[in-house]
Amino acid sequence: MGKDELYKELSDSLKDEHEDAAKYERLSKETGDDRYAQMLRDIAHEEHTHARHIREILSDMGMPDTERTEPVSQKAQKEA
Predict the structure, then answer these.
(1) What is the pTM of this model?
(2) Is the CB of residue 48 less than 8 Å from the CB of residue 21?
(3) What is the pLDDT of residues 14-47, one digit of tens each?
(4) Helices and strands in the chain: count of H runs, count of E runs
(5) How many CB atoms lie within 10 A of CB 33?
(6) CB 71 within 8 Å of CB 55
(7) Residue 65: which of 23, 17, 16, 10 has the closest Cα?
(8) Integer Cα distance of 40 and 25 in angstroms
């Protein structure tokens, strides 16, 4: 895999992690059960951690981070 392919794959993965985090945050607000809401918030936190790690990899490899703008979850909160 070349550097360009790796960059694209990592960038796509970063976007997916942000989208997943936003999804689980939204679901945590929609569930009627506090226990499930906490589980979903925990999953969202894990997705944010994955995104942070991918961001670190991009940075360490000297690759530009196209997701340096707000994560999808923050954008979704502002739009709501």
Answers:
(1) 0.74
(2) yes
(3) 999 999 999 999 999 999 899 999 999 999 999 9
(4) 3, 0
(5) 9
(6) no
(7) 10
(8) 7
